[in-house]
């Protein structure tokens, strides 16, 4: 577990991805199954509706003491006093967020190109998304499919916490951690499961079993 990002299983949730239960029910079941941190990713809501949804989710995450990250929208992140924000190359850059935001808030930043590891934006970010490990139908506008070799390359170039995202599930979580990721981020393997609690538990077990092997 990375000392600066002590979260192993990261749920990225939206209304659209919550197939068999409401978003709040999926989030609660996933927390009960072992999710450590949650990102609210609503790509099609206006800011006012995004804030309303984020407020509801924040009440739940606060009850369980789970940090809430907001995708893309700094106004929403501010409005709900989120733990952090996640941005990519087409969003407000980490340097701008840092100027506006209190320095101890977490900034997640997507790594799509190896060259990004040398940029000022990456230095400012607190943790990095390996974007994506495997291509996924959940987000199709991606650049590099990093794979296991890509994770190893990124791990050799930075000590920052690495969050693996893109088709992550119980079958590949252990090898991704073994390659150097610190945390596994999941949309569909949890949100589209009949039983999000059980799905989260299985992935968490895979992460922890692997870590135990190394002790
Ligand atoms: C943990 C995590 N990693 C990567 C992303 C992708 O962010 P971004 O590249 O900005 O794409 P969108 O999610 O905004 O479509 C993420 N959201 N979370
Ligand atoms: C939100 C997101 N970001 C990605 C990136 O590559 O940056 S992939 C992704 C969606 C991941 O969904 P699933 O777990 O269903 O594959
Ligand atoms: Mg984004």
Automatic annotation (TrEMBL):
| EC number annotated for this UniProt entry | 2.5.1.3
Where is Mg(2+) bound in this sequence?
72, 91
What GO terms are given for molecular function?
thiamine-phosphate diphosphorylase activity
Report the domain of life of the source organism.
Bacteria
> What reaction does this catalyse?
4-methyl-5-(2-phosphooxyethyl)-thiazole + 4-amino-2-methyl-5-(diphosphooxymethyl)pyrimidine + H(+) = thiamine phosphate + diphosphate; 2-(2-carboxy-4-methylthiazol-5-yl)ethyl phosphate + 4-amino-2-methyl-5-(diphosphooxymethyl)pyrimidine + 2 H(+) = thiamine phosphate + CO2 + diphosphate; 2-[(2R,5Z)-2-carboxy-4-methylthiazol-5(2H)-ylidene]ethyl phosphate + 4-amino-2-methyl-5-(diphosphooxymethyl)pyrimidine + 2 H(+) = thiamine phosphate + CO2 + diphosphate
Instruction: Cite the entry's keywords alphabetically.
Output: Magnesium, Metal-binding, Thiamine biosynthesis, Transferase
Q: Which Gene3D superfamilies match?
A: Aldolase class I
- What cofactors are annotated for this protein? Mg(2+)
Where would I find the Thiamine phosphate synthase/TenI domain in this sequence? Answer: 9-190
* Pathway noted in the entry: Cofactor biosynthesis; thiamine diphosphate biosynthesis; thiamine phosphate from 4-amino-2-methyl-5-diphosphomethylpyrimidine and 4-methyl-5-(2-phosphoethyl)-thiazole: step 1/1
Q: Which Pfam families match?
A: TMP-TENI
Which sequence ranges form a coiled-coil region, renumbered to this chain? none
Which HAMAP family does UniProt cross-reference here? TMP_synthase
Q: Which family does it belong to?
A: Belongs to the thiamine-phosphate synthase family.
State the protein's purpose. Condenses 4-methyl-5-(beta-hydroxyethyl)thiazole monophosphate (THZ-P) and 2-methyl-4-amino-5-hydroxymethyl pyrimidine pyrophosphate (HMP-PP) to form thiamine monophosphate (TMP).
This chain's protein is named Thiamine-phosphate synthase
Q: Which organism is it from?
A: Zunongwangia endophytica
